[in-house]
Specification:
Elements (H helix, E strand, L loop, with lengths): L2 H10 L10 H21 L1 H25 L13 H11 L16
Helix pairs in contact: 1-2, 2-3
């Protein structure tokens, strides 16, 4: 999946927490979020806040789908509330896709 496809997929599944997301989909969307927030932060604090608020659901949704892709529940994202938990999540987010289908869906595209 390339940059444009990842963004399109994540916005088409804006608040879809079911299914799976490949590593490329997740990381391309994270790059998009960082770039967009960086640019809007330079423009205006209000615009930054609006964009950050608009991206909350798709970021949580793609994170849950990415965790589903490695066989974990999306609720593990609550670990991000701690520093150690964020490191564990980072480790899980870089893991390869679990081969075959799992309890969450078929293999991610």
């Amino acid at each position: 999946m390339n940059f444009g496809q990842a963004i399109s997929t994540c916005f088409s599944k804006y608040a879809t927490f079911s299914g799976r997301a490949s590593r490329s989909e997740f990381w391309w969307f994270m790059l998009f979020e960082v770039i967009l927030l960086g640019v809007t932060g330079f423009i205006s604090d209000i615009l930054y806040g609006i964009v950050a608020l608009a991206l909350v659901l798709p970021v949580l949704a793609v994170g849950a789908r990415r965790l589903h892709d490695i066989g974990r529940t999306g609720w593990w994202q609550l670990l991000s509330l701690t520093i150690i938990g964020s490191l564990v999540l980072l480790y899980w987010f870089v893991q390869p896709t679990v081969e075959g289908s799992n309890e969450y869906d078929a293999v991610a595209a």
